[in-house]
Automatic annotation (TrEMBL):
GO terms classed as biological process: organic acid phosphorylation
GO molecular function: glycerate kinase activity
Highest taxon of source: Bacteria
Name listed for the protein in its UniProt record: Glycerate kinase
Keyword Iron-sulfur belongs to the record: no
UniProt cross-references to Pfam families, sorted A to Z: Gly_kinase
Length: 364
């Protein structure tokens, strides 16, 4: 039996690399002679650098940057020749702030700009930024401030709240400093930055912005966009990562699919063509999994290779009809198999146990 294991992270419990190891361990308990190919995946969010480090011939540059609420946090840039890979969540990720301490209206992306500056200082001419998992909603104003942009009447590096009274924005210092640098925004979010489908209204809740606060916060971003470039705010992907997509588009970034990028770099299509079965996974397999997430991307590649795709997830919250629409043959839930308490207390062991169960059904 030839198997390809290509999971996403299990948010809060296992990285994609750790999840792949657990799945392989469980599968081999039942099928020790299996030929197993491993390709941990990411869509641009947390884990982006971990996954790419294993397949890109490069070196890691360690940097200390400003976190979303001002505390210093460690981060890394993956340098490969004149190309640099940046995981924006390392500087502004939701995981960097305890749930009780979240203040998304004050969160800044300044640290992402510091990562970009570090990459440029190290000689990068092309910067590929993975967008996702952000805990900020500042339209990327902090990023622009770190690169030299200035504002009058307000503050670009004080989160969305700092944009409330802006009267002027000057992006030229940032554009001048980044002249000759090619930016690529790797994200599968197509939302604009403003309005009902924008960053605040669609993604604000998970960051801690209440429904009552959303109109005012969206208004702050609107003020910024009117001063910095209103048309760009309506572009596809401008709403990614709390508006980080908008800031990068202002700098001339090209937007590409995060999962497609990772699939290409990991050789996912070639590996899928060599196996009998493709296994993927993530923390919650739900309706959001359809929208440019890892499982949707892996299932698409498996289907193109005419191979069945099976999902292992912490929770399965999608029906069989929707699964098959995505190209997923079957899905197995850790919570259903071992219980929620054990699934969170021992995620590696629980995932391995479910993988062993999957092998009983699918191994030849």
């Amino acid at each position: 039996m030839r198997v390809l294991i290509a999971p996403d992270k299990f948010a809060g419990t296992l990285t994609a690399v750790e999840a792949a190891a657990a799945i392989e361990e469980g599968w081999r308990r039942r099928d020790p002679e299996a030929e197993v190919l491993v390709a941990p995946m990411a869509d641009g969010g947390p884990g982006f650098i971990d996954v790419l480090e294993a397949v890109v011939d490069g070196t890691l540059l360690s940097v200390t940057v400003r976190g979303p609420l001002g505390d210093e946090v460690p981060a890394t840039v993956l340098l490969a020749g004149e190309t640099a890979y940046v995981e924006t969540a390392q500087a502004c990720g939701l995981h960097l702030v305890e749930k009780a301490d979240r203040r998304p209206e004050d969160g800044t992306t300044y640290g992402v700009g510091q990562l970009i500056a570090a990459a440029v200082d190290a000689g990068a001419k092309r910067i590929i930024l993975g967008l996702g998992g952000s805990g900020t909603n500042d339209a990327g104003a902090g990023l622009l401030a770190a690169l030299g942009a200035t504002g009058a009447g307000g503050s670009l590096d004080a989160g969305a709240r700092g944009l409330a009274d802006l009267t002027e924005v000057d992006l030229e210092p940032a554009r001048t400093r980044m002249a000759g640098i090619e930016f690529v925004a790797a994200s599968d979010v197509e939302n604009p930055m403003l309005g009902l489908r924008g960053a605040t209204n669609v993604f604000g809740t998970q960051k801690g912005i209440t429904d009552e606060r959303k109109p005012e916060v969206d208004g702050w971003l609107t003020r910024f966009a009117e001063l910095a470039g209103r048309k760009t705010a309506d572009a596809k992907g401008a709403g990614a990562a709390g508006g980080l997509g908008y800031a990068l588009l202002l700098l001339g970034a090209e937007r590409i699919s995060g999962i497609d990028l990772v699939a290409e770099l990991t050789g996912l299509k070639d590996k899928a063509s060599k196996v009998d079965l493709v296994l993927s996974g993530e923390g919650a397999f739900d309706f959001q999994s359809r929208d440019g997430k890892v499982i949707a991307g892996v299932a698409k590649v498996a289907n193109e290779a005419m191979r069945p795709c099976v999902v292992l997830a912490g929770k399965v919250q999608i029906g069989s009809r929707e699964m098959r629409t995505m190209g997923v043959e079957s899905a197995y839930s850790l919570v259903d198999a071992v219980g929620e308490e054990k699934a969170f207390a021992d995620p590696h062991g629980s995932l391995a146990a479910v993988a062993e169960r999957v092998a009983r059904t699918w191994a030849r």
